[in-house]
Amino acid sequence: xxxxxxxxxxxxxxxxxxxxxxxxxxxxxxxxxxxxxxxxxxxxxxxxxxxxxxxxxxxxxxxxxxxxxxxxxxxxxxxxxxxxxxxxxxxxxxxxxxxxxxxxxxxxxxxxxxxxxxxxxxxxxxxxxxxxxxxxxxxxxxxxxxxxxxxxxxxxxxxxxxxxxxxxxxxxxxxxxxxxxxxxxxxxxxxxxxxxxxx
Length: 199
Ligand code: MN3
Fold this sequence. Notes:
binds manganese (III) ion, 199 residues, mainly alpha, 8 helices, globular, three-stranded antiparallel beta sheet, 3 strands
């Protein structure tokens, strides 16, 4: 079974005015599609064929840059579309809210740490909320790496990720990464983050 570009579950315009429809369409149909296609090309006929994306990423050390970059790109964008909510963010509640308070002191402190990680990731990459040994931590990764990878500095289960490649925001925000991160914060689907936390 080849990897498939997922449907978004909402329209490209559904995240306006925070994320513009044109950026969403290009991001999904060009960038994510390209990662998906290149991953399929790289895996086809290799020992990785038939493995889940999680299994591939958890054992990516020693694999080609093509597998690492496109496997990461495929997985990361699958997550990214799901943790965005048309209609805007709710708030973290219940066990997730408790865990954020326990790990960071408050949700506001978590936001500061997450935004700081996203702002200080030099060049292209991602910032993450990671579940690691029953604790929540913030990290960032370069390129399309992620915390599932055995090559990541901070390893664990990614619960929330923000794409800080310029293709995610340049059309609307140009070089203003802080404005994009504010927009992202307004769109977080905390129900999905909670589902990942519990699952
Ligand atoms: Mn992207």
